[in-house]
């Protein structure tokens, strides 16, 4: 037999991105027997995406050793571990029953893994809709009419509420769409802020079903240097980039250096937003983003994983 155990970390601390990526990857592995092992904290709406799944307590050595035993009992040959940080101990636990291991994380190289990848612009696991949108021409016109505020699925730092405070009362004709993900960490704080500012230019969309299309419709977006920033680059939406962790800062700076957006850092937000009224600048950023992130990372990764699974 052959097959893959797909292990993904998902909780309010690290967000839902790893589990979402795993669900996208499964679409490219339709001809391979797979089972998803998702950590506790995975939202129910995400669990529904998986044709075969199991909740595990965490990514401890004990938990991953149990995954390895279960996967080998099913005849699987390899495991894919998608987490914020993958350690050699995690890899060793999955190998304890004879599995080959692919490590997907922010680490540059994980000792002991048969395949180790840092998920970035060229190998980012995105839904097929993103690749289709990346191939479609896009033309920005005129000043900003709609911006999107999207700090990933969790936003542990509370940046969404902070940005809402800054933009309250600013440019009332500019629509400000806030996207709230399934593991959003500060819903009560955001609700309090929006109730206090009473600004009708804000609207909140919770767990949208058509996120790629919403991203493409926005003239610009405010986001963290996380997976979401790569999704926005792929659909040609210019960004103002924030960070709440060191790896997000690296990615934000990389995207800014490639001309896909503006890095916020400690700079005030409103002047950066004003710069994006320049449609010519937004068009340059759009072309740069769609060139840098083509949305085909899942297909490239799936080909490598199929070789491990047999």
Would you mind describing this structure in some detail?
The protein has helices at 17-27, 44-47, 61-73, 88-95, 128-135, 159-167, 187-197, 211-217, 227-234, 246-257, 269-275, 279-292, 297-309, and strands at 4-8, 34-39, 53-56, 78-82, 100-105, 115-118, 146-150, 175-180, 202-206, 220-224, 239-242, 261-263. With 310 residues, it is of the alpha/beta class. A 6-stranded parallel β-sheet has the order 3-2-1-4-5-6, sandwiched between helices. It is 40% helix and 19% strand. The termini are close together. It contains 13 helices and 12 strands. The chain is globular, with a radius of gyration of 20 Å. The model has no long low-confidence stretch (mean pLDDT 93).
Topology:
Elements: E1 4-8, H1 17-27, E2 34-39, H2 44-47, E3 53-56, H3 61-73, E4 78-82, H4 88-95, E5 100-105, E6 115-118, H5 128-135, E7 146-150, H6 159-167, E8 175-180, H7 187-197, E9 202-206, H8 211-217, E10 220-224, H9 227-234, E11 239-242, H10 246-257, E12 261-263, H11 269-275, H12 279-292, H13 297-309
Parallel strand pairs: 1-2, 1-4, 2-3, 4-5, 5-6, 7-8, 7-10, 8-9, 10-11, 11-12
Helix pairs in contact: 3-4, 6-7, 9-12
Summed over residues and divided by their number, the pLDDT gives a mean of 93
Biggest sheet details: 6 strands, parallel
Spans of at least 5 consecutive residues with low confidence: none
How many helices? The count is 13
């Amino acid at each position: 037999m052959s097959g893959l155990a797909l292990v993904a970390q998902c909780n309010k601390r690290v967000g839902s991105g790893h589990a979402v990526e795993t669900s996208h990857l499964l679409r490219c592995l339709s001809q391979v027997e797979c089972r998803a092992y998702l950590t506790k904290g995975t939202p129910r709406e995400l669990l529904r995406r998986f044709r075969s799944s199991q909740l595990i307590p965490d990514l401890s050595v004990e938990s991953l050793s149990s995954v390895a035993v279960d996967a080998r009992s099913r005849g699987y040959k390899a495991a894919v571990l998608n987490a914020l940080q993958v350690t050699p101990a995690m890899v060793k636990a999955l190998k304890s029953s004879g599995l080959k291991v692919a490590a997907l994380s922010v680490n540059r190289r994980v000792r002991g893994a048969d395949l180790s990848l840092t998920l970035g612009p060229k190998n980012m696991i995105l839904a097929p809709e993103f690749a289709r949108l990346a191939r479609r021409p896009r033309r920005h016109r005129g000043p900003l009419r709609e911006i999107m505020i999207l700090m990933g699925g969790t936003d542990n730092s509370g940046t969404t509420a902070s940005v809402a405070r800054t933009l309250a009362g600013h440019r009332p004709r500019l629509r400000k769409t806030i996207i709230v993900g399934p593991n959003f960490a500060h819903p009560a704080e955001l609700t309090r802020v929006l109730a206090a500012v009473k600004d009708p230019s804000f609207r909140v969309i919770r767990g949208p079903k058509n996120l790629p299309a919403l991203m493409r419709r926005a003239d610009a977006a405010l986001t963290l240097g996380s997976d979401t920033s790569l999704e926005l680059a792929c659909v040609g939406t210019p960004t103002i980039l924030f960070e709440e962790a060191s790896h997000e800062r690296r990615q934000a700076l990389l995207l800014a250096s490639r001309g896909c957006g503006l890095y916020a850092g400690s700079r005030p937000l409103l002047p950066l937003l004003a710069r994006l009224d320049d449609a010519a600048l937004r068009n340059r950023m759009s072309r740069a983003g769609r060139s840098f992130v083509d949305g085909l990372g899942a297909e490239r990764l799936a080909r490598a994983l199929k070789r491990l699974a047999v």
